[in-house]
Amino acid sequence: MLTKKLQPVQSFLSLVSRSVGHFPRQHYDVIVVGGGHAGTEAAAAAARLGAETLLITQKIHTIGALSCNPSLGGVGKGHLVREVDALDGLCGRAGDWAGISFSILNRRKGPAVWGPRAQLDRQRYREFMQSELLSTPRLTVMEGSVEELLVTDPNPEQPGQHRVNGICLANSSHPISASSVVLTTGTFLSGSLFIGQTTSPGGRIGDAPSSAGLSHTLRERLGLKVGRLRTGTPPRIVKDSVDLSLATLNPPDSSPTPFSFMNTHTRCRPEEQLPCYLTYTTPGVERVVRESLHLNCHIQQDAKGPRYCPSIESRVLRFPGRRHQVWLEPEGLTSDLLYPQGLSMTMPPDVQLRLIREIPPLHKAEIHMPGYGVQYDFVCPTQLSPSLQVKSTQGLFLAGQINGTTGYEEAAAQGLWAGVNAGRRALSKPPVALSRTESYIGVLIDDLVSRGVTEPYRMFTSRAEFRTSLRPDNADLRLTLKGRFELGCVSSSRHQKAVRVKNSLQDALAALQALSLSTTSWKRKIPDVHVSEANSNMLSGIEMLQYKDVSFQVLASIFPEVLLPFMEFSQRLKIEAVYRPHCESNKREIQRIQEEENMSLPEDIDYLSLPVSLSQEVREVLHRARPSTLGAATRLEGITPAAVVNLFNYVCFAE
Ligand code: FAD
Known about the structure:
Blueprint (H helix, E strand, L loop, with lengths): L1 H17 L8 E7 L3 H13 L3 E5 L13 E3 L3 H10 L4 H8 E7 L9 E6 L1 H13 L4 E5 L2 E7 L9 E8 L6 E8 L8 E4 L2 E4 L10 H10 L4 E8 L2 E3 L9 E3 L25 E5 L2 H9 L20 H7 L6 E6 L6 E5 L7 H8 L10 E3 L2 E8 L13 E2 L1 E3 L9 H19 L13 H12 L23 H13 L4 H23 L2 E2 H7 L12 E2 L1 H5 L6 H7 L1 H4 L6 H29 L17 H10 L4 H5 L6 H14 L1
Parallel strand pairs: 1-2, 1-9, 2-6, 8-20, 9-21
Antiparallel strand pairs: 3-5, 4-5, 7-8, 8-9, 10-11, 10-19, 12-19, 13-17, 13-18, 14-15, 15-16, 16-17, 22-23
Helix pairs in contact: 1-5, 2-10, 3-10, 3-12, 4-5, 7-8, 7-9, 12-13
Bound molecules: flavin-adenine dinucleotide.
């Protein structure tokens, strides 16, 4: 098991750290820069595909670091974790290994929008990621800082197209070449840290920013449009100094639900889980924020912060007079610290202490590390194709916070996708795309490359048009087989399990469908349930399961011979039955959209002089965004339905 692997990992770590500057090879298929949430998934995915991969990151011991909150998943984000897992990515299994408090959020709503979430032990999460990466075949992990990209200028045959050939490390004269390079530098690109009135260069506290050379190459050499965003993190609080009796206990689920399709249980036993606590801000908090605004330079800056995970300063300024939730969350099974979610702040440390002590359970609290803010450059993601390759630079892929997103899950999903495509490019395979009709990963990437970002982007279920079909419970059915045969990133053991589950579900649904009884017979068998007379005389087992109070277990107790063999899938079958009518009606719509989505727009199309009726504004939007499909064009801001029809006719005619 993993604990056994960790011993060799530690000695390997020191070996790698010592061997910086001596490269095992001079050429790799894929180089991934950055060992955060995007980089780890990218490197592992490229290696799974069969590409010789090098992961270079500033510090090996920070691989898998959770820069901010020690948690994974949630509403929308949990969908991404399940999908990354269905494509054999790491974060779901890491969450099951490191989770110390599991809950399914949004249970009052339908299962399509349930949010699997876990509070994590920071140390265990890092251990898992490091252990996994350091034992991945075809993957070399190296400590170092990438100073520059090796880039060739456009040649006359492909005007405007640069090509990336590898990287140069700081303090080394040896370039390393590669067919594809994936940049996942997170908040480190021209990163600056802010506490009070103090600013210093940095990507995260304790870590230097990426070198100026890298930013310079992206901006000046490749001509990429770069913007500036900001985020922040709360102070970490000494647990013993908090009076938790003044907060509301929020226990985890009594039976933890694993993230990973491959796991039947989590490492943490149900009774070992730790609770979270809920408390609220007081008017005193707002007063301290207002009094200290002049001492807080982060909040005065222009860069946009995350709207859905705002600092306490932004919250009280936007919604004066309200009380705001603060969650007190454990940082680990044996950690002495608490993470106060909702209290991200950047005022001077003495003011931070005054502020937190305005909250009743924290009235005597001590701060272990103050909160701080970070500002960083991001590359406007409309400059990427759906494979996450930079349109104007062959072989250069970008993933994670560098694309303007926020959150571990968003980063992991992009990392996996960039790793798959970077690996495919290196192995001379064509790029692949995921549609927004089949996955949240497809929604995320389509939103980024066709709409771009104006503030840090995070995933919500409301972003997915077909959320009744894209459920966390069916990520394996949607993606694992595709991942095995079309993408090449899924192992045979996962594939075999997915096929077994798929076949069993199909058999169970067929058995339920075949159980056809009259309404009167069903009423006799399940007298507690009000079977509607409006229904036809005969009802199948699937139709019965659609009734709120009819569980699969009830049906299995009535028809044990037929249904008992499928008991392990009882919850999935109930969900499948309930959503069946929605999914059927989705199918036609999805088919229409898929036809539209898949219609490629020629790469060399000159929108500014296209001989069709388009307004100048529409032409400019299309010219800037260069959507790769008609589907992507329809979702661009400013594109009218009439413009889409004209474009559609032009493409059909031109083809
Ligand atoms: P990161 O996890 O930042 O990883 C980047 C990696 O690249 C690091 O390992 C770094 O060492 C490495 N690297 C950088 N430059 C180089 C180079 N030149 N050479 C080699 N290696 C390099 N998310 C939320 O959802 N909610 C929040 O409230 C939130 N708050 C945050 C607060 C702070 C202070 C920070 C720093 C981040 C916060 N995040 C938050 C964001 C979350 O941490 C990121 O979204 C996520 O970690 C992004 O993953 P990533 O892989 O893109 O980058």
